[in-house]
Write a structure and sequence with these properties.
Elements lengths: L3 E5 L8 H15 L2 E6 L6 H12 L5 E7 L4 H8 L4 E5 L8 H9 L8 E5 L16 E7 L6 H4 L1 H6 L2 E5 L11 H11 L4 E4 L8 H19 L1
Parallel strand pairs: 1-4, 2-5, 2-6, 3-4, 3-5, 6-7, 7-8
This protein binds guanosine-5'-triphosphate (GTP) and magnesium ion.
Guanosine-5'-triphosphate binds next to helix 2.
C-alpha cells in the first residue's frame, strides 16, 4: 500500500497567493500534470467522488491526491487503499487550502510520474472559494440533502467553479430538492458552469463526470504540448 505523506501547517503563510498559484500552474505545465481543486460542504461526497474517479480512471491516468483536513488522515487512508499516493495537509484550524500549502504538498509528490492531481479541499462552502490553489480547474459538489438554495447563500463558490456535481441524486424524492431551481440559480451566477447529476452510491452520472474530466485533461494536454 502507498504511504501517506503528512504535512502539518503551523502558520498561515499566505503572502501573495495569486502569484504563487500562477507559479504552480507553470510548474504543473512543465510536468504536463493537470490539477483539479474539489470543494464542497462537509459530507457532500468529495472523498466518495475521488474514490469513484480513481476506480474509473486509474488504468489510463496516473493519479495523485492532496487531502486537506483540519485534523485526521482518514480520507488519505481511503485514497491509499486504492493504491494511489496521497499527501495529507493537516491545517490545524485553517478552513481553506491556499497556494503555499499546495506547493508544499506538490513538493512531496513525484510529478514526473503523475498525469492528474486531485485536491480534496477542506469541507466548507465559503473560505476555500476565496483562494486560488494553482489548479487548472475548480470543481464543486452540492449534495441533494443540503438543499437547492445554496447558490443564493454561497454565491462565490458557484462563481469560481467550472463544474458542479449535484451528488446524492439517490436522495431525490426523499429530500425536498428542486433540481430545475438549483440549475437556474447556479447558471444565473455562472452561465459557463457545467452541471452533472450524480450518485457516488449508485454510480449514476459518474461516467459523465469522468468524461468531463477526461475532456478537460485532453484539452489541457493539447495546449501544453
Ligand atoms: N446515499 C448517498 N450517500 C453518499 C453519496 N456520496 C457519498 N455518500 C455518503 O456520504 C457520506 C460522506 O461522504 P464523503 O465522501 O466522506 O464526503 P466528504 O465531502 O469527503 O466529507 P468531508 O471530507 O468530511 O468534508 C459517506 O457516508 C458516503 O458514503 C451518494 O451519492 N449517495
Ligand atoms: Mg472527505
Amino acid at each position: 500500500m502507498a504511504d501517506i505523506r503528512l504535512i502539518e501547517i503551523k502558520e498561515d503563510i499566505l503572502s501573495d497567493n495569486k502569484n504563487l498559484a500562477d507559479e504552480i500552474r507553470d510548474m504543473l505545465r512543465i510536468h504536463n500534470v493537470f490539477m483539479l481543486n474539489l470543494m464542497s460542504s462537509p459530507g457532500s461526497g468529495k472523498t466518495s467522488l475521488i474514490v469513484n474517479t480513481i476506480r474509473s480512471m486509474q488504468d489510463t491516468r496516473r493519479i495523485g491526491v492532496i487531502e486537506g483536513d483540519i485534523d485526521s488522515t482518514v480520507d488519505a487512508e481511503k485514497v491509499v487503499q486504492e493504491g494511489i499516493p496521497a499527501v495529507q495537509l493537516k491545517t490545524g484550524g485553517f478552513c481553506h487550502l491556499d497556494a503555499a500549502m499546495i506547493k508544499m504538498a506538490l513538493d512531496e509528490m513525484d510529478l514526473e510520474n503523475l498525469d492528474l492531481v486531485i485536491i480534496e479541499n477542506i469541507g466548507n462552502l465559503v473560505c476555500p472559494a476565496e483562494f486560488d490553489t494553482g489548479a487548472q480547474k475548480n470543481a464543486m459538489i452540492l449534495s441533494v440533502p443540503e438543499g437547492d438554495d445554496k447558490p443564493l447563500k454561497y454565491p462565490l463558490i458557484f462563481n469560481v467553479c467550472d463544474v458542479l456535481v449535484v451528488n446524492k441524486i439517490d436522495y431525490m424524492g426523499i429530500a425536498d430538492f428542486d433540481m430545475a431551481a438549483l440549475k437556474e440559480r447556479a447558471l444565473k451566477l455562472n452561465p459557463n458552469i457545467t452541471i452533472i447529476e450524480a450518485s457516488c452510491k449508485t454510480g449514476e452520472g459518474i461516467e459523465k463526470w469522468t468524461s468531463w474530466l477526461t475532456e478537460e485533461m485532453n484539452a489541457y494536454q493539447r495546449a501544453v504540448t
